[in-house]
Amino acid sequence: MHDTVLAVDRIAKRYGDVVALDGMTFDVRAGELFGFVGSNGAGKTTTMRIVLGVLAADAGEVRWRGRPITLADRRRIGYLPEERGLYPRMRVLDHLVYLGELHGMGTNAAIGAAERWISRIGLRAHRDDRVQQLSLGNQQRVQLAAALVHAPEALVLDEPFSGLDPVAVDVLAAVLRERAEAGVPVIFSSHQLDLVERLCDRVGIVRSGRMVACGTVDELRAGGSARLTVTAPQAPPGWADGLPGVRVLGTEGPRTLLELADGADDQSVLRAALATGPVQEFSRHRPSLTELFRDAVTAETRAA
């Protein structure tokens, strides 16, 4: 098992009567890509800001390699905020060199690192452009380079894929994999759940300031209910209503998506479908990350 580099332990944060974080707990390990997902307002950005020291927690602790995190530790983290934090009138190369120097790099080292990252993320043609002249997607590439220029020991990225075209997404995904393979722990939030599912070693699902599910996608799937897709062209509406251990999740024309409770008999579902006429499709599958996420964030609403 990889060593834990960054641990968030029972973090709480409140703004008046609004509870932003309620015992947020998770860890990120060396060489791991950790996806941090949740609805808007779930507490992801607040958590990241507390990790970086931008905000102070009301309770709980952030630990770096097993001890309380310090300012020196936080300087070892590369941070990409959701809101771009670039100086619009600075030129790309100058900007990255300046940020490298702020992190304690010598000028020559900062220039070398800036040039390497400009080439790596595909901005060689824009190295002398002012940031404000760039497209939003290219500004996001610069923001990523700014998080990487000082060779951080961990990466915390808030919506890093926002505004990127598919080619830039592939470039960023490759960079994150490379950093993880070099032993750097990477935590990033994203609403692009297919991308999270494809990239991440583990995923944490956040709801109402709490971590409600955490694990590999396969582990999360194993804990989720099995799904059935049944296509029965002659089946009347409501044909599956009342079947034991079965919940109808939705219909699309002749296709019905069902959720099976533990121990439910899928063969009884097949018999009920065949009783209506021909069955063109009968497939069982575990939920995707998108389905798991939807279930996790709507569970509170259903319970209410």
From TrEMBL:
GO biological process: response to antibiotic
Any one GO CC term of the record: plasma membrane
Location of the protein in the cell: Cell membrane
Transmembrane segments: none
Residue span, ABC transporter domain: 6-233
Keywords for the protein's UniProt record, in alphabetical order: Antibiotic resistance, ATP-binding, Nucleotide-binding, Transport
Membrane-topology descriptor: Peripheral membrane protein
GO MF, one annotated term: ATP binding
Family: Belongs to the ABC transporter superfamily.
This protein's name: ABC transporter ATP-binding protein
Organism in which the protein naturally occurs: Gandjariella thermophila
